[in-house]
Amino acid sequence: MAAEAAGRGMTRVLVAIFEHDESRGLMHLPRLIGLARLQDAGVRVAYFRRIPRDRTDRYDRIVADRCREMVRIERAMREAVADVVRAAGRAPVECVVRFGAPLAEVTREAEAFAADTVAFAPGGSARARWRAWRVRRRIASYLGLRVLMVEGADGGPRPRAMAMRPAAIIDE
Amino acid sequence: MNDILAVIVGTAPVTLALMCGTAPVTLALVWRNAAARRREHADTVAAMARAAVDRALGGQSLVAVTVDPVTPWAPGRLHLSAPDGYRQLVDDAYLDVAQRLPRAYDLVIHGC
Q1: Hey, where are the domains in chain A?
Q2: CA atoms of A47 and A35, how far apart (whole Å)
Q3: In the predicted model, what is the mean pLDDT of chain B?
Q4: CA–CA separation, B27 vs B49, rounded Å?
Q5: How many whole angstroms separate alpha carbon B19 and alpha carbon B22?
Q6: Residue A74: phi, psi to the nearest 5?
Q7: A8-149 architecture in CATH?
Q8: Which residue of A has its CA nearest to B87?
Q9: Distances (CA, A) of A169 to A162, A164, A165, A166, B112
Q10: What confidence tens digit (pLDDT) does each residue in B6-44 have?
Q11: What CA–CA distance (Å, rounded) separates A38 from A119?
C-alpha cells in the first residue's frame, strides 16, 4: 500500500503560516527553518489568507480597495518574515503570500513548489485546530506530501503561571 | 414449493429480529477489532521511532515518543517531545524518525 510505504528525507519544505495564526507561525518560523536546513532542504515560507475586503471609512467611502490591501498585507508579511529570520541569525528565505481559500491554496502552493513536506504550527484555538485537521486531511490525500507540525509544550493547555510568595522573615 | 415459501415467510420476522438484536454486538466487535489492528500498527510505528531516536542520539534519551493511530477520518500522528531545556534532542533526532515514518503518519514536534 502506497500510504504505508516508509517516507524519504525532506528535501523541499513549505512552511505555511495561516491567517489568525500569524504570531504563532512567526514564533516557530526559525525552528522550522532550522529543522529543514539540518538536511539542506529547500525552504519556502508561504502565508495564506483570505482575500481582504475593501477598507471603508465611516461614510462608507472606499479608502483602500482590496488590491491595495493585498499589496499592503503582502509587504507587511514579507517584512515580518525577514525580520524574524534576521533576528534568529538565519539566512534569508523565500517568502510568498497567497490570497484565497487557505485550504486550496496550500495544496496549490505545495504543488507549485514541488514540496514533499508542509510544515506549520497551528494555534490552540478551536478554529486553528479545525483548520489544522482539514489541512492534514487534505494533504494526506496527496501522495508524497507529508505534514510536520509544531505544537505546544505538551500538546495540552498551557500551564498556569504560579506566583510564589517570599518566605516571611521572622525576627528573633 | 409453497411450503418452503411459507416457512421462509413465516420465519422472516424471527430472522429479522435476531439480526437486529445481534447487530449492535457484531458491529461493536468489528469496530473493536479494527481499532485493535490500528493500535497494533501504531505500536509498531512507535517502536520504529524509538529505535530511530535511540540510534540517532546514541542511546536512551529524554525524548518521548507517542503515536496516535490512523483513523478513518484523520491520518495518524507521531509526537516527539522532550522536557524544557532538552528541545535540541528532538531537533537532532527528528530527521531519522522522519525518514522512516510511514506516509500515513504526520510528525508532530512539541515545544514552544
Answers
A1: 8-149
A2: 19
A3: 88
A4: 33
A5: 5
A6: -65, -45
A7: 3-Layer(aba) Sandwich (3.40)
A8: A153
A9: 21, 15, 12, 9, 37
A10: 887 888 888 888 888 889 999 999 999 999 999 999 999
A11: 14
Choose among B100, B107, B110: nearest Cβ to A148.
Answer: B107
Please enumerate in sequence order all residues whose Cβ is within 8 A of that of A54, keeping only pairs 6 or more positions apart, or say none. A62, A64, A65, A66, A69
Chain A positions touching B79 (Cβ under 8 A) are 151, 155
Report the length, in residues, of chain B. 112
What are the boundaries of each domain within chain B? 2-109
Q: What is the DSSP string of A101-165?
A: -HHHHHHHHHHHHT-SEEEE---SSHHHHHHHHHHHHHHHTSTT-EEEEEE-SSSSSPPPP---P
- Whether residues A136 and B74 touch (CB distance < 8 A) is answered with yes
Q: Decide if pLDDT at B83 tops 60.
A: yes
pLDDT at B51 over 90: yes
Residue A14 pairs in a beta bridge with A44, A118
- Rounded distance between C-alpha atoms, residue B49 and residue B106, angstroms: 12
Query: What digits encode the pLDDT tens for the residues A98-148?
Result: 999 988 999 899 999 999 889 998 888 888 888 888 888 888 777 678 888
- Positions of chain A with pLDDT under 70: 1-9, 143, 153-172
